[in-house]
Amino acid sequence: MTRTNPPAQPDGERRSSAEAESRGETSAVPIHKVSEEVSPGSVGWREASIEILARLGAALMLALFAYAAVRRWHADPTRITLLLLVVGVFMSMGLALFARVPIRRDWTPFALICSIGGTFYFLAVRLSPGVQLIPEAVGAALQLLGIFWELFAKMSLRRSFGILPANRGVVSRGAYRFIRHPMYLGYFLTDVGFLLVNFGVQNMIVYGCQFALQIGRIVREERLLSDDESYCAYRRKVRFRVIPGVF
User: Fold this and answer.
1) N or C: which end of the chain has fewer CB within 10 A?
2) First to last CA, the chain
3) Count of CB atoms within 10 A of residue 51's CB?
4) Three-class DSSP category at 104
């Protein structure tokens, strides 16, 4: 692999980089500093207003869903998977409400459909009990595994995540040392845990569409990042997207 020379750095930063490299750590900062938070003044008041309204609308839908799901759980407290579904949705979407505003995002119709559908799919999930293909405890264990893995991935990203595909900076630490899109593995485990305990035609269709949309999001995100040399180097190092040895 050909290594490009990094831009000149102040002496203090050069020493810090050398020390990190000597410890075997990989830099999570892209060549272009695209992970810096964008202030409302730099994107304009119109764009800032749209961003705020979109996040408020998402928060409202999340709150309405959580209220309906928790009410059903109160009626039958043995449905742990239903309560964990709410926790998982808050993990995947709620934290995105506080994500950085990126400089570059993918606003193409395909990316919008994949991102919005893959994020707000929970509004179409059938919350009433379905067919239990596996015991409640097994489904809850899968959900917890997915939630903890997703939390680990989000901690690795810090605030560099969101709904739309975007370049918020290249991260190669934490969960991103093993697969390129670890959060999607967390989503998958959480979704499968709920689906297998609350199986039905409606939920099967919803989650089937959800999985297809998430694959679309991954493809669009990688296409957006393909012109970032630091991401290309990262992709050569970490081969698999979501499931090691499979995808």
Assistant:
1) N
2) 23
3) 14
4) strand
User: Across the chain, how many H-helices and E-strands are there?
Assistant: 9, 2
Distances (CA, A) of 12 to 8, 83, 153: 12, 49, 30
Q: What is the pTM of this model?
A: 0.74
Q: 130 is in which domain, residue-wise?
A: 49-237
- Percent helix, strand and coil across the chain, each to the nearest 5: 65, 0, 35
* Cα(96)–Cα(166) distance, integer angstroms: 13
Residues 53 and 125: their CA atoms lie apart, in Å, by 25
Domain count, the chain: 1
Q: Is residue 226 part of a domain?
A: yes
> In the beta sheet, which residues pair with residue 105?
166
Rounded Cα gap, residues 89 and 98, in angstroms: 15
Reply yes or no on whether the pLDDT at 222 is more than 70.
yes
% of the chain beyond a pLDDT of 70: 73
Q: Are 181 and 217 in contact (CB under 8 A)?
A: no
> What contacts 68, CB < 8 A, 6 or more positions away?
127
What is d(CA 89, CA 66) in angstroms, rounded to the nearest whole number? 9
Q: Which amino acid is at 129?
A: P
